[in-house]
Design goal:
Layout: H1 3-14, H2 20-47, E1 60-66, E2 69-74, E3 80-81, H3 98-106, H4 111-118, H5 122-136, E4 147-156, E5 185-193, E6 198-205, H6 210-217, E7 226-230, H7 233-242, E8 245-249, E9 257-258, E10 261-262, H8 264-277, H9 288-300, H10 306-313
Parallel strand pairs: 4-7, 7-8
Antiparallel strand pairs: 1-2, 2-3, 4-5, 5-6, 9-10
The structure holds zinc ion.
Length: 317
Amino acid sequence: MADLAFDQLFAALAMQQLSIDDVAQLRYWIAGIDQGAQCRALIEEAAKGRPCPRCDCARVHRCGQASGLQRFRCLGCKRSYNALTGTPLARLRKREHWLAYFQCVLDSLVVRAAAAKVGVHRTTSFRWRHRFITAAARQRPSELGDIVEADETYLLVSQKGARTLNRPARRRGGVAHRRGISAEHDCLLVSRDRCGRTLDFHTGQGPVTAAQLDACLGKVLAPGATLFSDGAAAYRRFAGQHGIAHAWVNASAGEHARGDVHIQNVNGWHARFKGWLIHFRGVASKYLVHYSGWWRVLDENWLDTPTALLLAAARRN
Ligand SMILES: [Zn+2]
């Protein structure tokens, strides 16, 4: 903008009697300009020196800008890309609102509240939330070591948000028809070592099986790790099949700890997760692992700023 035009505009603005709402709107608008540039700079900086996302070729050259990001052209596959190609944030728009939206993620806002706060439509808010959370929650420990606690928690299966239900509608916070754990329950398996490294898995419906434990934990238990669990047969079978050192508490007989042997760190995680879930008023089964991943990120507390979350989400895995 020419200086003169800006000066005139500024003079005109300065003569206005601005209401509190006007000032808030102006502040929000200016922050948007600032945050868009900040967001773009962070993304570009994080992607510096990355090879081509399609063929891993390091021979690339710059070729202009598109959608506000530097474009690169790969000399190997001849295709072009930008810093977000191959990341979960690719092709999402309105970058000027992303950092503000990540703050909403840190504040655990529901979709509607986040939409109102940031000034985007509810459907955008919904899409962003799931995309941003799953992107950030990819930061998972690759291994759990030494003493590793594992236990499941169960939540009633929910078709929240589905257009058609394959069962009669249930009132909010309903109860299962059958006693005990059944196909009416989603199983969330959580494993945590004594350093606090935590992994969460949605194993499906019904009680966890030895095969599911193998699929989830088989590759992440460090050599020499000792597994602590309750006395469920699935854990004993899984540990026996793999020769994993295993100790368990007899929870069904009321035993919570035997010296060092307990699963209270995992159970504490379950309790915090379920307490946090309450304000979402039920979560759809298909998104359960998004929420547990979200909670894991919040509970670990090392991605604790919008910038840290953005950088984690913009990584290429
Ligand atoms: Zn390439």
